[in-house]
Design goal:
homodimer, 220 residues, alpha+beta, Arc Repressor Mutant, subunit A, SH3 type barrels, six-stranded antiparallel beta sheet, two-stranded antiparallel ribbon, DNA-binding
Chain lengths: 220, 220
DNA sequence: AATATTTTTTAGTCAAGACTAAAAATTTAT
DNA sequence: ATAAATTTTTAGTCTTGACTAAAAAATATT
């Protein structure tokens, strides 16, 4: 069955919200990310349920069905592959690619996206460290932790971010926090849980708990 | 002013039709290419005129204004650059790229299209030999002729096609008529104006007048 | 020049996807 | 446990861009 631009957006956003929780997704949460009003979301959820892409009982929130998740994963795959293309081949910065990829993700051509995948050498992650589903919709298992969960004096490598708003990414860039950086948590401030981190063996930088929560790492 | 997907399509199609005639473009001609009905076209032409992108008097047909042509040229530029990308970088054949480029041409990012242009080495023509407008909307002057206008025993080089339907392109491929081929018109059949042509010094191939009309050449 | 044909426009609908305001259900607080 | 606050849904509209059927204008034919 064909999917409209709007339907694809809703499925993608429900998928994104499901990534970070096991609970059903609320109407308001969807409204916020789609930049629409709750009433519009209710309408759309009924339509998506009708088509068998979500399970939705009114007032109970929403979850993707298996079929809905398959569609969402194909959108996510396209979005993330295009982001790799924009950074690696077009020379954009990691904070510039989201909006463009939001458009490119709706281009309909299985053939194109598979050729693009090959052209990019089958990347496992996008420029923010998010995993890219393969042709079959399988996500690579990355097993990243949040920097905010790391103990003092442990070394790790920055592998990704859990949020890709431009302002957040620009902040990281200003702090010299980029993918692949070697980090050691020097000190955790008990007052506000802010931390000081050394980056690639150089002088420590101070990071709020909020920022640390959104940095994904693997142990060195 | 922002342009919708539908508006961009109409402007592009009016531009295409204007390329091959000096007369005003009829409602029906537009309807055929947009795959809509004449009544829908009338509606849209009123809206486009409202926005200052076309000159339209009812029953008199339509022409692009300067501003409308500027928008159309930017869509055409995107369409043709994406086609080059699809053939050169993604490995598609010249008869496979039109539909995908119809989608890609609506991606909104001046920065992206200029980077793409650079990435492709500022091509002058698309995979069908159609000229690509530059950043300023200027079309390179190619000065091609139609193969159907060539005299007998004159040599020329195949530079483009005036029609990019998949069936036509597949026919040319089967006849070994591809961009850059050296052609000599051996014989013009006065009965139906079909011609026999030698291709790259090898045995002649027979071509209808209809086909010859849609092949663009430059003198050798 | 009058009639027939074709093209274009008008008038009235429809579906998708958004909105606001008000009602209903759920959750939180007292 | 009830009241207050919040969330979600319903009901009714709006805009965009399509449609059909009928009317009007332009073009072609005799």
């Amino acid at each position: 069955m064909a999917t409209s631009f709007a339907e694809e957006n809703y499925l993608k956003i429900i998928y994104r919200l499901s990534e970070s929780t096991l609970e059903d997704i609320s109407t308001n949460a969807v409204a916020e990310l789609t930049q629409t009003k709750a009433a519009s979301v209710t309408d759309m959820l009924r339509k998506l349920a009708e088509k068998g892409w979500v399970n939705y009982q009114k007032y109970q929130g929403v979850r993707l069905t298996e079929e809905g998740e398959k569609i969402a994963l194909s959108i996510v795959r396209k979005h993330r592959l295009w982001e790799v293309f924009l950074v690696e081949k077009m020379g954009f910065n990691w904070d510039e690619v989201h909006e463009i990829a939001e458009q490119l993700e709706h281009i309909e051509s299985e053939a194109l996206i598979n050729k693009l995948d090959e052209f990019l050498d089958f990347p496992k992650t996008d420029p923010h460290g998010d995993p890219i589903p393969n042709k079959e919709g399988i996500l690579p298992e990355l097993g990243y932790m949040h920097l905010s969960d790391l103990k003092e004096n442990k070394a790790c490598v920055l592998m990704g971010v859990a949020k890709d708003s431009a302002v957040f990414l620009q902040l990281l860039t200003r702090l010299h926090l980029s993918l692949g950086a070697k980090l050691i948590v020097k000190e955790i401030n008990p007052f506000d849980r802010s931390i000081s981190v050394s980056i690639n063996e150089s002088g420590p930088v101070f990071i709020s708990h909020e920022v640390a929560k959104n940095i994904l790492i693997k142990m060195a």
